[in-house]
Design goal:
Helix content: over 70%
Shape: elongated
Strand content: under 5%
Number of helices: 5
Distance between the termini: 21 Å
Order of helices and strands: HHHHH
C-alpha cells in the first residue's frame, strides 16, 4: 500500500519528463532536424549546446529546467489533481 500516491506519481512524471528532454538520442535527432551549418560542421557542439539549454531551462520549447523544485512541484500538483478527479465522491 502506498502512503502518498500523488507524490510518487508526480515524482515519476517529473523524472519521465526530464528523461524525455535530456535523452541523448532525442537531442541528436533535434540537432539534425534543426539543420544549419553548426549541426553539419560541429554536431557534437550543437548537441552539447542544446543539452545545456534543456538542462538549464533556457530552451524556448520548455517551461523551465526539467530537474528543479518547480518542475517537481508542478508534476506533483498535476498528479494530485488527477488523483482527486479519479476518487469517487462520498
Amino acid at each position: 500500500r502506498r502512503r502518498n500516491p500523488p507524490l510518487a506519481e508526480g515524482a515519476r512524471a517529473c523524472l519521465a519528463q526530464a528523461r524525455h528532454h535530456l535523452d541523448p538520442d532525442g537531442i541528436a535527432a533535434a540537432v539534425a532536424r534543426q539543420g544549419g551549418m553548426r549541426s553539419k560542421i560541429a554536431p557534437d557542439a550543437a548537441a552539447w549546446a542544446l543539452y545545456r539549454a534543456r538542462f538549464l531551462g533556457t530552451d524556448p520549447d520548455q517551461s523551465g529546467p526539467p530537474l528543479d523544485n518547480t518542475a517537481l512541484a508542478r508534476a506533483i500538483r498535476a498528479s494530485q489533481t488527477t488523483s482527486t478527479d479519479k476518487e469517487p465522491s462520498a
